[in-house]
Records
---
Amino acid sequence: MNKIDMIGKKYGMRTVLSEEGLDKNGAILYLCKCECGKEKIVNGSSIRKSLSCGCKNYHPSIHKLSGTRIYRIWCGILKRCFDKKSPGYKYYGARGIGVSEKWKSFPNFFNDMGHPPFGCSVERKNNNEGYSKDNCKWATIKEQNNNKRNIRKITYQGITMNMTEWANHIGTSPPALHHRIVKLGIPIELALSIPFTRSNSAKKFTGEIK
């Protein structure tokens, strides 16, 4: 059976910090930290079955949101920012885009943002900063596009053109280039240099979170 990589991942209220040897049955032991602050060494099976250390701060009503869009959005943010195996990591975590300490807890994220309005997704007000209450809001696609007017003129390698001109120059469509730069927040130099092929199209870089 393949070993499950659990380091850095969160299960319910507990985050896996490190491996701590084996138990008497040969199962891997992990040091975990609960949102209440308590640290405890348990085996992997226990982590996946129990969502907290048993503390009184565990909120079953909050966990019932695990199948909702808001919970998936939060998981997507953490995955892009911290999971090096995630396809989106190089555009987020590797660029230094992180998550505030407060928002590493789902209840805190939910309390600050609430459920997403219909047709909206998370927008970072400053694409060079991470995910936090002060830097994020719910926005429609139209609002997100309007907020990106500053990149309609793009300077790259000493050449300045608008997005349509750049799309024509590199042999792709304006919507495809717009998708990379505006919706996904990919840096200009990468957006203009990654080839647009059938196996490496804009559709490959889809996702819930921007």
---
Amino acid sequence: MDGVFSLRNELVDYYDLRIWFSCPQDIRVSRLLSRGDTPQAEIDAWIPMEERYHAVHEPEKSADLVIDASNNLSPDGDFKSLRVTYWSPPDTPQKD
């Protein structure tokens, strides 16, 4: 299961492994704008919904694996710039 709102509180127990890609809002917005297929008005409407989701559901806290995706990936798909910031294999106690 993949999706921006997929780690909602009512869904997290249905997953065997929960992965969260963490990235600051300013970088996410910059990436959206640089793709050229998302109008600023759509981004402006999206951000408040995303902020509410983060505040209510705290997806990073329910993830088994958190990856810092703030660095740019290389054009050839080299994932070396991604950094694991948290890893707790499933069936182990969750972090606070």
---
Amino acid sequence: MNNHNNSEVEAKNISRKRGSRRIDILQAMAQMLHSEQWQKITTAALAKKIGFSEAALYRHYRSKAEMLNGLIDFIDQSFIKVFKDIDANANHNSIIKLKLMVECLLVFSANNPGLTRVLTGEVLQNENQDLQKRMMKILLRIEEGWKIILREAVINKEIINEQNISIAPMLMSYVIGCWWRFSKSGFTILPNRYFDIHWKIILQSIK
């Protein structure tokens, strides 16, 4: 990959402003989601991994759902920060910005296998539906942002056909498909593995 530092966000970089204990819990949960036994994650198992009692765990988070919400917070803030940096770069035209944002989602997943199961919603299926709705809302917000970038590309004559704005949902479907493939392969098929090739095909279809 070339010059993708902006898109490389790792779970170990979670801000510790909210308290190191809370961060330790979230990092431990992300690590456990990476394992084959992720479906058996309980507060008891999580407390044991960290070396807490369950009572101590509940002093920091009231429930497993609240911990998952903390992971979604991290995902959301990570994307917001990186997308803001990409968008602020005056040297990038609209199409380059779009490419970097799409790749950011794939690289984030590759760097954070456990969090991929949050991105796909797998770990949220048996939890509070509000968590699933929140994750979907984040993805839809990103998709709407891509539509804005594509409109700018049309205005700047980077792409000719205005109908190509509708490619935004397809790009999101592509990203989610790469996430699922990564997860279902036991994290062996990296989501960004063939991105450069895929992007050339995508670019040919919209120019």
---
Amino acid sequence: MKYLHPKIVFKYSRIYDEIWKGGLIIRMVKNYPSTKQILNYIKKIEKLWQKEEKRVLRELASVTCLEWRSEFIYCYIVGRSRPFSDPLTIPVYEKHLDYFIDVLIHELIHNLFIQNSKEMQKIRRYFNQKYKKESQRTKIHIPIHAIHSYIYLKFYNEKRLKRNIDLSKQDYRKSWMIVQKEGYKNIINEFIKRI
């Protein structure tokens, strides 16, 4: 089934959060947010995301020529982790609430690709061939960052895009640099040709 856009449902799972809290890397992190802090954070981001949800999700489908195939996407919020798209999991970002939105959009682009895995086969082959000297992580993120650049410049601003680039490390930064050099519109056009 196809949807105009899914509904993002923010969830807290104490069991899931405890797994992250108990992880080896997490044990080294001071001030792991409490359950109460995470639940309060979810209330804040829900309000913020409500303003963005429809326009961002519709635009992602439109610019990629892909379709949302899920009615709901559950987004798990945990105290600390690396964000990832399946299951959609994002940690608490205390400093900037809008950065949470930026990370969510990034992961939702991944999620849209996952939902359209058949359509993505030809696209993956193209990017793997064109950027064969780059790491797998860089290759994967070139179309992600091109689409994200489009969203940043359509709905937000260049300063916010620059902040994301500045916060990126290694393979992610390399893919941003490729997008900057080749132009996000050119990369999106090559993406769409292969749908």
